[in-house]
Every structure is written in C-alpha cells, then in structure tokens.
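INTERNAL TRANSFER SHEET
From: sequence group
To: structure group
Subject: Glycosyl transferase

Please process the attached sequence and return the structure record in the designated field. Keep the field labels unchanged so the import script can parse them.
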Amino acid sequence: MANLLSLCLALAVVTALLVSFHVGKLTISQEIFFPQIGKFPSLATSSSPLTCSCNSSSSSSSSSSSSLDEWLHPKEVWHSMTDEELMWRASMVPRVEEYPHNWTTRVAFMFLTRGRLPLGPIWEWFFKGHEGFYSIYVHASPEFKEEAVESSVFFKRRIPSKVSFSLSLLSEASFLEELLQLALVTLWSIDYITFLGSFDDPRPMGRGRYNKRMWPLVALSDWRKGSQWFAIDRKIAIEIISDLKYYPVFRDHCRPPCYMDEHYPPTLVTKLLPELNSNRTVTWVDWSRGGSHPASFRWWDITEGFFNRMRFGSNCTYNGNVSSICFLFAR
Ligand SMILES: *[C@@H]1O[C@H](CO)[C@@H](O)[C@H](O)[C@H]1NC(C)=O
Ligand SMILES: *[C@@H]1O[C@H](CO)[C@@H](O)[C@H](O)[C@H]1NC(C)=O
Ligand SMILES: *[C@@H]1O[C@H](CO)[C@@H](O)[C@H](O)[C@H]1NC(C)=O
Ligand SMILES: *[C@@H]1O[C@H](CO)[C@@H](O)[C@H](O)[C@H]1NC(C)=O
Ligand SMILES: *[C@@H]1O[C@H](CO)[C@@H](O)[C@H](O)[C@H]1NC(C)=O
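Return from structure group:
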C-alpha cells in the first residue's frame, strides 16, 4: 500500500511538473466544437429529430432561452443520446469559421476512468487559474455514479458511458490501469498537428495483431500501433467520430490480443489523414524495461536528473522546427 501510494505521488508530481513547465505551449488559435453535447440551440425544438431522445432536464425545458454560449459551453454534459445519435450530433461542424463573437480558444480534455479520477487533486491543480480555456469530459464506467463536489472542475462533467472498460476500451488489466488516465486533448492548431502515436511494429504485438479478414478495407501496410494517450485536433476528431467505414472492420475483427484503443486511432488516421499526424504522443513513458507495460517509478527514482531526462532527453520537430519540448505529460 505504501508503495502504491508513493508511486501515485511520484507520478502525480511528474505529471504536475511537466504540465506546469509546458502549459504555456498550449496555445491554440480557434475554439473547438468537439464534443459539444447538451443543450441545442433554439432552432432545435421538440419536433426536430435532434431532441427525440434527448429529453433530459437540461435540453427540454429552456431551449427557447438558451443562448449560443450556453449551447457551446454547456454547464452539464449529461445526455440521453445513444452512441449513434451522439456521434451523428458531434459530427456536425460549423461551416462559418469566424465566430460572431470574441471568444477564447479551449482545449477539450477527455478522461477515461473506471471510477473516481486517479490523481484528481493534481488535475484540479492543473486546471486552476485556467478557467474558460478548457472543457472537461469524464467518461467513467457505467457503474460509477458518484458526482464530484460542486467546487471541483469535474463537477457535472461526467458523460454517459455504455460500456464497461474492463473488456472494451482499456486493454490490459493490471493495477497499473487504475492509475491510467486517458486524456484526449482536442487542439485546433494552425497546421492541424496531431499528436497520436503511430508506428508500424513488426513484432507479434504489432503486425501480429492484424487480422487478414480486415482486408481489403484495412491492409497490413495500413496497420499501425500507438498509445492510448493522444492529442488530436478538431479536424481529425471529426474524422474519427464520423467514421462508419473502418470502425465496423475493427469492431468485428480486432479482438484480443488485438486492442482497439492501441490500433484503431493510429490506423484510421494513417488511412485518412496521414500527413496531419506527428506520429508521436505527448505522454512520456519508459518502455526500456520491456514487457507490455511501461516502467513504473518509485520515490527513489524521482531525481532532478530523471526530470531532466524526461524534459530534455529527446528532440522532436514541432511545426518543422526542432524542439526539446516533446511531451506534455509523463506516466
Ligand atoms: C423522455 O421523457 C419521457 C417522460 O419524462 C420518458 O418517459 C422517456 O423515456 C424519455 N425518453 C428518452 C428516450 O429518454
Ligand atoms: C473583439 O475584440 C476586438 C479586439 O480586442 C475588439 O476591438 C472588439 O470590439 C471586440 N468585439 C466584441 C464584440 O467584443
Ligand atoms: C507520419 O506518418 C505518415 C505515414 O504513416 C506520414 O505520411 C507523415 O508524414 C508522418 N508524419 C511526420 C511528421 O513525419
Ligand atoms: C537535441 O538537439 C540539441 C541541439 O541540436 C543537441 O545539443 C542535443 O544533444 C540533442 N539532444 C538529444 C537528446 O539528441
Ligand atoms: C520555427 O522557426 C522559424 C525560424 O526560426 C520561426 O520563424 C518560426 O516561428 C518557428 N516556428 C515555430 C512554430 O516555433
């Protein structure tokens, strides 16, 4: 228990420090629209198919008084749409790029968690002082019903989940997964850079998971592997939620030891918009010890040298320029 606690703390500190170091880099030029669920504009009243199964308290009564801002930034994100309805709804994007008001750019964070968010206090700290620049969505197991306290940034940010993570989204079951947080950062950057790990792994845990039945829609040469943490811009986010062509192939043929979350996003982006992906993730992990989980760290690992190795230990390109700032988070 003590070890687990120190591991949590260590990870928490690592995350926090990296974040504080890099947070200034999160500059984005446009507001994002994904995912905006909740209230619909007054155009969409009861006769519209949009509201057919969305009669939660937030969307039914006050639609006539809802302003554009309320619609764009719903206080409460719970809804009663089915996955199909939600995807369809979220795939709608404005054609007019210029918003009729001054607005600030936001980053959407999607957390995938079984229950209470691990390292919650650190995330509270991370968001503190940045109100108005982020949107938070928490996708927890359906069994988890607990609401965050009202002062929390996670208050009423839970969105309905139809699946139990143990089998579907999170691939490897171990206690480390309890610490796992999946952050989907939706950026709208000028040149559409997306940070989604994507590589062709010749080993059994890479190409070995390809299923010939996926052919011809997905060929072995399209097959990619990546990590569960990624940052995508709006353009790619829209492509992913609008995909009805490749998703069924994965749903039907990517079964353990093939894991959707490791293969579907990188393979899809490689098929659709390869040139927009940086092919790397923003989360630093140490795979040097081998195995199917990255290395975990204890308190005695946490030294200045360790931090510097994470922060400056690699070079990468960002918008064509070489940078030593390659990661936003560390696990
Ligand atoms: C809509 O609300 C009605 C009455 O509150 C309820 O009976 C019905 O099940 C709701 N529909 C959906 C799809 O949630
Ligand atoms: C938007 O911002 C610009 C520049 O700061 C300012 O000139 C303009 O009046 C603002 N418009 C509104 C509607 O607030
Ligand atoms: C990422 O990989 C794709 C092909 O898989 C390639 O088209 C693209 O240029 C790569 N991105 C970078 C930044 O190298
Ligand atoms: C990164 O690039 C800088 C400048 O080119 C170089 O001094 C440094 O050694 C490089 N670091 C790594 C880890 O390759
Ligand atoms: C890349 O470097 C060029 C030349 O130094 C600079 O003008 C440009 O702003 C840099 N781009 C970014 C994204 O830092």
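Handover comment: The two ends are 19 Å apart (CA to CA). The beta strands are 107-113, 134-140, 158-159, 182-187, 230-233, 283-284, 316-318, 321-323, 329-330.
Transfer complete.
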